[in-house]
């Protein structure tokens, strides 16, 4: 799942991004509303964590523009304004959820995960296919009931494949969803990660390579 964090307090923004990356999410960061709109023009995000009081372009205006353009991401509005009227106003302009500062990071992760499940076709909390079960909240993977220890990127790649529900996922789509905007598009990291993921999931193989197209589970 790919997330955009939009927060003008750089220390907080970077801390949120670091924490979400530890949860095996791909995260980009923008420090103002203009930067957020630039990134949404070139990247497709599943969830946007959007501070309301932003410089250059106000968070409310960012939200209105994305909703008006039918941008597919779910929006979690993050702000120091926690009064009922502020929450109602934030939701009324199109935000999908609202979290007031200060917040518990575990709650932020839970809300991001919940919104991510609603980003396209609604998905269950635990993803399962071909004997592989993945629980994003607990960061657990089982193969035929056997625990499988994965790195953060292996976990992220497997989650993308499970979310595709049997459809083919290209290397470009995996780079888009499991890595951030700083990844080299010509890297072989997808192939290497796929090789180690297959090895850890064991036999019989469940990840198929579709020649010239991508991968499917």
Automatic annotation (TrEMBL):
Report whether Transmembrane shows up as a keyword of the record. Answer: no
Q: What name does UniProt use for this protein? A: Response regulator transcription factor
Sorted alphabetically, which SUPFAM superfamilies does this protein's record hold?
CheY-like (SSF52172)
Q: 4-aspartylphosphate modification sites?
A: 51
Q: Gene3D superfamilies attached here? A: 3.40.50.2300, 6.10.250.690, Winged helix-like DNA-binding domain superfamily/Winged helix DNA-binding domain
A Pfam family of the record is Response_reg
Q: Which PANTHER family match?
A: REGULATOR OF RPOS (PTHR48111), TRANSCRIPTIONAL REGULATORY PROTEIN CUTR (PTHR48111:SF36)
Q: Which InterPro entries match?
A: CheY-like_superfamily, OmpR/PhoB-type_DNA-bd, Sig_transdc_resp-reg_receiver, WalR-like, WH-like_DNA-bd_sf
Give the DNA-binding residue ranges.
124-217
* Location of the OmpR/PhoB-type domain: 124-217
UniProt entry keywords in alphabetical sequence: DNA-binding, Phosphoprotein
């Amino acid at each position: 799942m790919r997330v955009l964090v939009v927060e003008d307090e750089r220390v907080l923004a970077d801390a949120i991004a670091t924490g979400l990356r530890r949860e095996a999410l791909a995260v980009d960061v923008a420090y103002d509303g203009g930067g957020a709109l630039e990134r949404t023009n070139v990247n497709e995000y599943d969830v946007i964590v959007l501070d309301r009081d932003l410089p250059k372009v106000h968070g409310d205006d960012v939200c209105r523009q994305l909703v008006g353009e039918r941008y597919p991401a779910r929006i979690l509005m993050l702000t120091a304004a926690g009064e009922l009227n502020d929450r109602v106003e934030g939701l009324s302009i199109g935000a999908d959820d609202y979290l007031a500062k200060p917040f518990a990071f575990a709650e932020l992760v839970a809300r991001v995960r919940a919104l991510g499940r609603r980003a396209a076709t609604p998905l269950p909390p635990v993803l399962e296919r071909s004997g592989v079960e993945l629980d994003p909240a607990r960061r657990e993977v089982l193969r035929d009931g056997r625990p499988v220890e994965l790195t953060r990127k292996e976990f992220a790649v497997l989650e993308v494949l499970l979310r595709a529900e049997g459809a083919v996922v290209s290397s470009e789509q995996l780079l888009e969803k499991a890595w951030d905007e700083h990844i080299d598009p010509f890297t072989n990291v997808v192939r290497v990660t796929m090789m180690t993921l297959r090895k850890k999931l064991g036999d019989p193989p469940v990840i198929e390579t579709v020649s010239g197209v991508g991968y499917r589970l």
